[in-house]
Amino acid sequence: MKWAILHAVSILALVHIVYCIDHYRYDDLVNVLQRVASDCPSITRLYSIGYSVEGRKLWVLEMTDNPGQHEMLEPEFKYIGNMHGDEVTGRAILTSLVQYLCDEYKNGNTRVEYILNTTRIHIMPTMNPDGFEYAYDYVERHGYRHWMYVGRNNANDVDLNRNFPDLFPKLYNKKLRNDGQNHHLSYSTMYSEMLRENETLAVMHWLDDYPFVLSANLHNGELVANYPYDASRNTYINEYAATPDDQLFRQLARTYSKNHGEMSTRKTPCEYGGDVFVDGITNGASWYSIRGGMQDYNYLATNCFEITLELGCIKFPAKEALPGIWDDNREALLAYIEQVHRGIKGVITDENNNPINDAVIEVDGIDHDITSTSTGEYWRLLPEPGTYRVHASAASFIRETKTITLEPDGVAMVINFTLHSFPMDNETTEEPVTDQVDVDKIVPICSGYRRWFYIFCWNIDR
Question: pTM (2 decimals)?
Answer without folding.
Answer: 0.87
